[in-house]
Amino acid sequence: MGIDEAGRGPVLDSKILKEEKREELFEALKANDSIGWAVDVIDPRELSAKMLKKNKINLNEISHDSAMGLIDRVLKMGVLLTEVLVGIYAVITRKLLASPSSSQQFFSICNCS
To answer: Which 8-state DSSP code applies to residue 110?
Structure first.
């Protein structure tokens, strides 16, 4: 399983492929029944609300919760998960490794960013 986030940090590398090629690859992925994908969209208003409330939740916590939610969704689908490649900040990868479910479920979690 691979997890990455959009809209945070430098995005120059993600723009190496031209838009047409990215769209072509995305269509090929959607057409392949053996490949699954999911998106967890966090609305900017939700981010602001969490980061500005009295008991603040920082962006790393929000990213961690989103990643764990995606992992949980895949596990509930019955997928045998042996590896998670995480393209988000290293602090989140460390938190994922420290999560009780990750040590029991996954062969490895590595930071690919």
So the answer is: E
